[in-house]
Amino acid sequence: MSKYFSPQEWLKFIGKEKLQTFQDVFSQSYNVSMSFYDAEGKPLTVFSKFPLFCTVIQRENLQRCIDEGKNHLASIQEKDRSKFFTCPFGLIGFVCPIFFDGQIMAYAYVGGVTYEGSKISPETRERYHLPVISKERLKEISELLEETLNLLNVNLSIFEKCKIKEKREFREDDLKRNSRISLREKEIVELVCKGLSNKQIADALFISERTVKTHVSNILAKLNLHDRMQLLVHYYGSSSGDTDEH
Prior knowledge:
InterPro entries: PocR_dom, Sig_transdc_resp-reg_C-effctor, Tscrpt_reg_LuxR_C, WH-like_DNA-bd_sf
CATH topology of the largest domain: Beta-Lactamase
GO biological process, one term: regulation of DNA-templated transcription
Structural class: alpha+beta
Protein name: HTH luxR-type domain-containing protein
Largest sheet: 4 strands, antiparallel
Keywords: DNA-binding, Transcription, Transcription regulation
Pfam families: GerE, PocR
């Protein structure tokens, strides 16, 4: 049976800066506010695109907002899956659990948007630049985020292999020194490990999706990896600290 892995160890393994970067990119790509929290509701990252609307609302309703957030986390702990919510002031969002070795390590909070027909007037939406999306679109975003975060739900045995097999471990420093990897391939590795799809990478780099697929295949072959899962595990494992065998 695997030993207990604390949220602090998980964050060290993932890399706080990488988690923040992933959050910022995801938030910007889908025009939502976003942050990560530990199991006790303490923030792990700095909020991306925190709505001015919420800042104003919380001036007089801070405790109510805090209590709402705690209720969302409590309901997820019971069901182990994403929870969608509509806040009392008209915003919608969801909270997504993040697993590692079968344990809930953290939560992704996504929101800061509203929908047609909400109690927020069109004038208020415009004043505070609130994005308006359908609940169906929000569900699509949640499914995409879940798929990406599920890649982090690795078994500790994989983590231990990343620690003790240094020669096979893929590190960012190794990537920078690896002459076999081109500058373009390094860019693609960064984007793959931030959770972007082949199409999103193609759009970001102004190349075709087929070219992205070719680059990814070449990267995996050069690094002796089998799939994007291994690439992600090794990439995030680069910040895990000491890799000496004990």
